[in-house]
Structures are given as structure tokens and as C-alpha cells.
TrEMBL record:
<comment type="function">
    <text>Pyridoxal 5'-phosphate (PLP)-binding protein, which is involved in PLP homeostasis.</text>
</comment>
<dbReference type="Pfam" id="PF01168">
    <property type="entry name" value="Ala_racemase_N"/>
</dbReference>
<dbReference type="InterPro" id="IPR029066">
    <property type="entry name" value="PLP-binding_barrel"/>
</dbReference>
<dbReference type="InterPro" id="IPR001608">
    <property type="entry name" value="Ala_racemase_N"/>
</dbReference>
<dbReference type="InterPro" id="IPR011078">
    <property type="entry name" value="PyrdxlP_homeostasis"/>
</dbReference>
<comment type="similarity">
    <text>Belongs to the pyridoxal phosphate-binding protein YggS/PROSC family.</text>
</comment>
<protein>
    <recommendedName>
        <fullName>Pyridoxal phosphate homeostasis protein</fullName>
    </recommendedName>
</protein>
<keyword id="KW-0663">Pyridoxal phosphate</keyword>
<feature type="modified residue" description="N6-(pyridoxal phosphate)lysine">
    <location>
        <position position="31"/>
    </location>
</feature>
<feature type="domain" description="Alanine racemase N-terminal">
    <location>
        <begin position="2"/>
        <end position="214"/>
    </location>
</feature>
Amino acid sequence: MSLQEIKTRITAAEAAADRPAGSVTLIAVSKVQPNTRVAAVLDEGQRCFGENRVQEALGKWPDFSQTYSGLDLHLIGPLQSNKARQAMELFNAIHTLDRPKLAKSIARLAQELGHCPDLFIQVNTGAEPQKAGILPEEADGFVAECRGLDLPVKGLMCIPPVDEVAADHFTQLAEIAARNGLAGLSMGMSGDFEQAIAHGATHVRVGSAIFGARAYDTQA
Ligand SMILES: *Cc1c(COP(=O)(O)O)cnc(C)c1O
């Protein structure tokens, strides 16, 4: 697979869903990939990237930003409150806001820093004990709480359970977003991004289909 092929497939999926061309943002998930592969994708013009870990991202993106302008960096992995400041300084968007304590830390830091990344609330649609995210039945209350803190919540994010029909989870996430007046839907990965687009994804997070298999897997 290549970046160009994925972009072609996204365009086709947008058309198949009667959605405007360009309505889906491709986040190229570069976690764990060697810098040479990331540089190749940057050279092809991609500017929007996703990372799982703050520390790993700090090790590569400040350097890349010396060479490449207009980077749009998204944190898609779990965020500890004690890394929130670093994350907010580096990333343009955080997709893993998932608990009140983190919301309060981000709100306080936003005051201090004078800016805040776009935020997506992660919903644990499969209610999996090992997975991060607010439970579906707590999502409405948490959205309201975040809005009360003046946080720029743009949408919701989910990672469907591996052994379940992803479309059911995409539908569920879209329903929660719609009833809360949220436009953003971060859903869909290498194996199911076209389905996610059919269900309204605005941001797809595609790693291995662009870069090739990861040498080891730190998937959260
Ligand atoms: C790693 C990861 C992806 C990308 O997964 P691929 O299957 O390689 O496309 C997407 N979202 C999250 C949250 C991830 O951790």
C-alpha cells in the first residue's frame, strides 16, 4: 500500500457515501515507524500525522518541524495528566480525552499556555475493561462537563473491539456525537477506514496500510 493509494480509496469512499471530496482528514499514524519511512511520506506531501506516545513524538517531530512546515500532529494514544503540558505544546489535536481529571488539567494548562489543541473525547464503545475511554452511558455527562470547562471539544473517538463488528461501534459513536452536537468523528484504521467513512468518520487513523507493518507493536 502507499499514501497515494490510501488517498484514492478515501476519495472513493467519500463519493460512495455521498460525502464531499476532502471531508475526511487522513491521519498518517507514524508511531514506531523508522524516520526514513516517515520522511518519505512527508516528502510525498502528507502533513497530518498521529502518534501514540508523547515521549516518542517528542523524539522526532521537533526535528522534522525544522525541515517540514505546516505539520498537523495528533495524539491518538492514552495521555497521563503529568504529560498533558508537553502534549499540548506539541500536538494540534488530542483524541484521547477520557476522564474528568485530565479535562481539568487540560483546562488549567490552556489558561496558562493561552491555547488548547482540538480535543476528541475517547469513548470505550465496547466497554472493554483494558481499554481507555469514557463509557457510552457517561459520555453525554462528560461532554457537558468538558464544555463547562470551556474546552474545545470537536468530536468523539473510538477503537472498536477487535473481535466485534466495527460498523456497530461506528454507528454508536455517530449517534452519541449527533445527540451532543459534535461534528468530529475519529474512527477507522487500516482495516476498516472505508466502513468508518460510510458511517460518517471525519478523521481516519491509518498506520500500517501507509507505512507497512510496525517492527513491534505499542498499540494501546
Ligand atoms: C496504531 C493505531 C492506529 C493505526 O493502526 P493501523 O491498523 O496500523 O492503521 C489507529 N488508531 C490508534 C488509536 C492506534 O493506536
